[in-house]
Amino acid sequence: MTDTDGMEEREYRERLAHDVARWQREGLISNEQERGIMARIGAGEPRLVGALRLGWLVSAVALIGAIVLAAGVVLLFAANWQAMPDGFRAALPFLGMFTAYGIGYALMFRYDMQRIGSAFLLLGALLFESGLFLLAQIYNMPVESPALWLLATAGLLPLAYLFESRIVLLLAIANATSWVIAEMVTRYQDSLESLSALVVVAVFGVALYAIGRLHVLRTSLARYGDVYAFSGLLVLLGLVYVFTFDEPWREIIDSSVESFAAPRIVYVAIGLTAALVAAQWWLRERSTEVHIETAAQGALLALAAIVATWPAWAGYAVLFNGVYFAIAAGLVTYGYLRGDERYINFGLTVVGVGLLTRYVDVFWSLLAGSAFFMVGGVLLLAVAFGVERGRRGLIATMNDDDAPPPAHPVGSEVPV
Amino acid sequence: MTPIRKLAIVVGVQVLILLSVLGFKQYTIWTGETVVLAVAPVDPRDLIRGDYMTVQYDISTLDPDKLAGDEYPSDRVYVELRESEGGTWDAVAIHDGRERSFDDTVLLKGDMKYRSFRNGDELTVDYGIEEIFIPEGSGSQLPFGDGHTVAVEVKVDRFGNAVPRRFLVDGEPFELERR
């Protein structure tokens, strides 16, 4: 058995140990069946079962440890920054990176400790990024400089792909999103164009989603597909959420933003994203699901173009509330069709946040403080009851024999 | 590809990126001309990177009627600076490209942010050197408005790129201390 085979076998057993426990809790299998399955994979004794199930805890603790350590190192440097000579300051990011990557490599490939090794690679990535910003500080570069976010993304992507790290990919995507936001804000700061330029951020969300779908087409890249798709949805929903309020549209109307005043970059972004959406549609196997998904992306891009071109309309807030809840409904439906609980939970969370926001928006000024919270609490409990009933119903349907085969096992981990 | 090669690629790319930032700015410091720009302050706080001071230079707002060069410059501008008798550098011309109207001058690259006609014709230019990092809690040490002249020593390379180096008070280097 090769190292890779051994690694895959271990990962499979750990995943199975979690899934079996979940199936038992949900009443799908009995205690005896759970024990039988675990014995079949060599974990007959309770302590072995525990060891298999503690793998995620090791990963979680190691990742948190890496993030906390990186924060501590940055704070230590920051606290003593002025006292250090320039040469030493410039060398520090390199030293930190080399040390973290060296330890991570040794743990992963010499001592076969994948989880801790991955955490050290993440630590190296965080030290690279903080080093980039610390170097910029030495030279008094502007704090909002978009170039730094772009450079951080460029440095993190090779690590994410070559070492198959989804958490580093998530970090790279977060940097890329920050770059787009910083670029739009600095380029169109304090100008009427800045409001239209925000549309580019939403378009970037659609682009990330399409990139995710393109990744799924290649077996070697498929594991990154969900990271892009979920990140894209978060970015898109974040901006759509902002657009569900009246205030941005009132501000646009009050600022006398004219039609056809959007900067060219908005249309370039929409055009490039449309090409990505078309590419994923062209390359994927044709099905009703793919057509609907592509049509939804196309509709969002068309809406982005309309909003950028004719931004001054008070009715957009209502329209974007519709878009917000339509995306949420789409996520739940998609999760149901694919047998993927993550999309269902995500969609229902989006619905919950949307309903809570509208409740606060509408009733905060209408009800007295105590009545606001009491009515809100009762409504939330009722919504939670309804959502949980619906959710359980959907999940139960997924487990029926005649349900479509799940693309991702129910209860599989969040894609990071 | 072996894991060690993969790691070499990752580290190589990241080191290259860090060195590019370092090299780009260090080039300006090594090859640049030293100019001194008079400032007036604004003082916010950046939670991520400690304290910094946002300064407005005397050359941040320009009256194009008093300058040589292009009357209606585009977004990217090159402001021509010449040393005054007081030791600070003043704008004498503004250009669309890297050209000069006078001898013994330095070109500083900037981005035109606004053109206002409220108080006569006025251009607001951003040079990318308006934020200067200072030791924590030291912002109040600079003696603005006490009859002193506060300025920033800046290195400007032949492409117009600039790196602020230190504060000067009445022409002398002023060390800010952490509090």
Can you describe this structure?
The complex is a heterodimer of chains A (416) and B (179). Chain A is mostly helical and 416 residues long. Chain A is 78% helix and 0% strand. Chain A has 17 helices and no strands. Chain A is globular and about 70 Å long. In chain B, the strands form two sheets. In chain B, strands 9-2-1-10-11-12 form a six-stranded antiparallel beta sheet. In chain B, a hairpin with a 5-residue loop joins strand 5 and strand 6 (89-95). Classes of the chains: A mainly alpha (416), B alpha+beta (179). At the A-B interface, helix 5, helix 6 and helix 7 of A face helix 1 and strand 9 of B.
Fraction of residues of chain A in helices? over 70%
Name the pair of protein chains with the most residues at their interface, and give those residue counts. Answer: A-B, 35 and 33 residues
Strand content of chain A: under 5%
Which H/E pattern describes the elements of chain B?
HEEEEEEEEEEEE
How many distinct beta strands of chain B? 12
Ends apart, CA distance between termini of chain B: 52 Å
Shape assignment of chain B = globular
Secondary-structure element pattern of chain A, one letter each = HHHHHHHHHHHHHHHHH
